[in-house]
Structures are given as structure tokens and as C-alpha cells.
Amino acid sequence: MNRDPFLEAQARRVAEWKAALIAEPELLDNTRSTENTLDRAANQPCERPARLPEFPRAAWRGIFADYRQTMARATEASDAFHFATLWARCAVALGRRISFRYGMRLFPNAYLICYGPTGDRKTTATRKASEIGSPFNVIHGGGSGEGLADEFSSADSSQGFLLYAEEFSQILRPSRWEGSTLKPFLTQCFDCPDRYQMKFRKSPIKLDQPTPSLLAATTPDWFWQDFLARDFQGGFGNRLFFFTGQRKPQMPLPEAANLEGISRLIDALATVESCEARLEPKAIELWTEFYGAWAAEESRRDPLLLAAVQRIPAYVLKLALVYAGAERTLPNITSDQLGAAILVGCYGETCAKELLSLQHAGTNPRKELERLILTFVAAQPGRTPTKRAIYRALWRHYADTEAFHRAFDSLVRVGELFTRSASRGSVLVSTEPLE
Length: 435
Fold this sequence. Notes:
Arc Repressor Mutant, subunit A, Rossmann fold, 2 domains
């Protein structure tokens, strides 16, 4: 019996994961030493890698392959940004019509962030989301949780809505205002509750079945100016899925893309019959292998990366839902649809890892010391270290006492670290607020 070459490749990938774990059993040991963690952080390169994450070819199937072809001569933007744009638009069209039981009900909605250097045409790619298909529920820029809820309180609850930002900072900066409700709104509504209520205002908001998706673009520099590392551990950040890619060769005269065919396919998604999807038997086998390999790799990820990619398995299922809806296999999700989604999930982890490596790229020694302090604090789950313990542990990484205090105080001022006085003059330190 001939096997699908793609499935054979996916099986080999899973086998490689397992082989790596067998060859390095210490990777399963969760009791890594703080010293080893610091050594890895100190040696971690900060420059942007010469070879960016490669977007998986198997992901280009059905409507995604059609869209890639449509946009081939329309812009120099990376194909990965086109994929994110279409994923977000498909998710809005499908809304709450289809779901998957994953402890709770998963819907196709997604929070997708495209990042790269200025001038790589990511904004050109993401703008197309509002041009595909019939008019839909979309709001541009940031605002407040109340504003978003008001905007969509009368919208068709069977469809999703899209929050679009040409620069992600349009969302991040308002969310840092005192009393801002934007981030709590996006965090709570990611799981698409039956009802969202905003109680702390004169006219409380009740939003039935909110199904939001987010599409935004940013540069690493702008992202790290407005995004704190602890946001990944606070809930909102680990709901994001990242895309990056290499700009295409120059196109002096790009062609206008004919989106009529893609628009018809998108509009057809809004007519998909409501159902709860399920994995076919072969897909169940593939999911079981992937999930086991993914969980086993947790000990290889540093605490910040672990938090940042926490929801990638859920995103794999969300994308598989989109494939199944677009390819009309519902209520079944096939093994090749799931396999393609798994590869996109692995790509997303690589993008998140690269973005984290750029957190302090090209900065001065104080910024590097700040990174090591954060790494030390985050590498001690269940413990609250003291400032003195951090000072002693990092003695090799600063020139004098004043340098350490400058870096430490800077992290406290910007809200990356929180402190509380304890007994005998000691100061407790955490990346989360201390009561």
C-alpha cells in the first residue's frame, strides 16, 4: 500500500523528535540548574539569523494555494504574511459555525502577528484582509475593551470580527493606560465565551458570543518597545501566533491582484453548516504522536519561550478547522490537514523563538544584564528570589555594584520586575506583582 509522501515526511519528523529525546534523556529532566540556564542566556545570539524560518510548503493547500498564486506578482511581501492574512479572514468568515472539543470548545479565531524589518511589505500584505470577500465586521486600530464591545454588540454573532492594526503598538500602547480594559477584553474573549460582560461602567456591556480575531504587523524594535516579556506569562501574550519571512525579490511594477475568485471562496465559508469537528482515525494517531513529542520538548524550552508557545497545539487544531471548513471535509479533519497544520505550528514556534532572541538585539551591556536578571528570576518556578540572591548569582556579568543596581532599577521602573520588602531587610523579586 502506497503512503502519502507528506505523511511519510511527517512521520519521519515525529520519529526525529523521539530519537532526539532518547539520545538526550536529560532533556526530560525538569530540574535544570540556574547556572546552566544563565550560561545559555549569556551565549544566546541576539543578531537576526541569516536564514529566517522557512514556511512549510505543505501548508499551501486549497484556498491557501490559490491565494498564494493570486498574490505571486502583486507584492514583494513574504508569502508567510499572505498566509496569515488569509487565515485571519477565513477565521472571521467561519465564526462560530464550526468548533472542536479540546477540553473546551475551540473555534477557528486567531490572534496573528506579522513581524519583520521596516520596508518588508508586511503591511501591504495584511491590508488585503479587508479587501477579500463581502463586507464584514472589522475595526481598525486600538481603543478600549468597551469600544470594541460597543462596536460589535449588534453584529451577527454567527460570524467573527477582526481587529486589524497596521502597527501592533496601536493595540499595545492603549492597553497600558491606567484602567485600560482592552487587554482583558482580548484575553477573555480569545476563548469565545457564550457571553462577555463589562460590569465596571455606568451602562454595563453584555456581548453575546464574541468571536474575535486579531491581525497586526510590527517590527521587532517597535514590538519590544511596547511589549513586556512578562506579558507572555500573563495570558495575553501566549494567545499570539507569530509570522516572519524573507521579503521577495524586487518587483518594479507589481500587478493588481484579482481577488474575485478568492472572495467567492471566502463568502462560501460563511455558509458552512454548523458542526462539531472530529479527527479521523489516522489524524488521531498523528495528533497523539505530535502531542507527546511536543510535551516532551517542554524541558528544552526556556521559561519565556515555554510561555510564549503554550497555545501552539491549540492553534494547530484551529488551523486544521480552517482547512477542513475550506476543503469541505467537515465534520472530519483529515490526517493531511492536521499534518499541514502541525508544520505551521512548528514554524510558529521558530518565529516566536527568533522574536525572543531579538528582544535586546544590538543593545548595550546594561540591556544584556537586564536580560540575564529576567532570565534568573523566570528560571525559578515556585520560588521568589531576593535581590541579594540575584546580585550574588550574576557577579560574573557586571563590572561593579552600581551597574547591577542601574539595570535592576530600570527593570522595576518599566514594570518587568516587581519587588516587596521582606524580613531582615531583604527584597523579594518577581516577574509578577507581589501582594
